[in-house]
Amino acid sequence: MAETKVGTFVVYCSPAGTTGHVAKVIGQTLAAAGDQVTSLDLGRDRGRAGEVLRQIADAAGNVCLYIGSPVYSSHALPPVMEFIARLPRRDLGYAVPFVTWGKATSGLALYEMGKSLNAQGFPVIAAAKVVAVHSLMWQVENPVGQGHPDAADDAMVRKLVGDVRGKMRGERPLTPLSDMALAYQSPAAHEEMMKLNLKVARTILPRRLVSEKQCSQCGVCVDECPGGAITLNPYPVFDDDCCILCFNCMRLCPLEAISADLTPIYDRIEMRGRQAAEQPLSQLFLDGD
Q1: CA 171, CA 202: separation in Å to the nearest integer?
Q2: Per residue in 68-78, pLDDT tens?
Q3: Do β-strands 62-70 and 230-232 pair in parallel, antiparallel, or remain unpaired?
Q4: pTM (global) more than 0.85
Q5: Which residues touch 186 (CB under 8 Å, ≥6 apart)?
Q6: Count of CB atoms situated within 10 Å of the CB of 209
Q7: Distance from C-alpha of 163 to C-alpha of 160, rounded to nearest angstrom
Q8: With bands split at pLDDT 50, 70 and 90, how would you rate the model's confidence at 172?
Q9: 257 and 215 in contact (C-beta within 8 Å)?
């Protein structure tokens, strides 16, 4: 029997690197199995999004899209949701959403990504949430989620890929997940998380300050901004409408010319994690519901 032809794509946004780590494990696992994979980092290579969307539209046979986002303010990042909204209508397209979260809450990101993918005609056949070190705690000695993703998380991701490959090649039943299969938060928590977004987060997180004395106008902040929210004029200027509050500009500035006092939010992160007490921390969603 001829092997089913599958076009495989791994698309993600990863300001702090943990979603990119999961995407790399996915890509390496697929490559080790002999699959050809097209990868796209929406933060670092936004200009290729149209090209990859055309490749998805033109691919022969089945298409499997792995698409990943970190969880910010309980939701997936706008660049990821925007990519999903632009997916072409086609037959034989399937999706595998995955998220990384900083052990405070994995929020509604998987649910919202899955619902949007299903609506776009890309049925979700599996999904995963993977716990990770909290992206805003790089200055903390013992950050929430420290050490994750770890070897066990990577093994779980490889299991995900094995399951999906079997489904895409007809070796296992290809039963899509329903929207509600990924609605694992309690109704009360779901309602509260619906009230959160990046606009609300801007009222909680501190504003960044730019030291013109220290800034060399090197442009690293512009290059490393996954939202395309920074211009030099002649010093960094922030567009709040595009900013996703990743603080990459501060974290990666080689001269520490961008600053913000994040210490007041550390207790809030830890408290939110204790209140949610979400278990399991990392989880696969594999069976049709």
Answers
A1: 47
A2: 999 999 999 99
A3: unpaired
A4: yes
A5: none
A6: 11
A7: 5
A8: confident
A9: yes
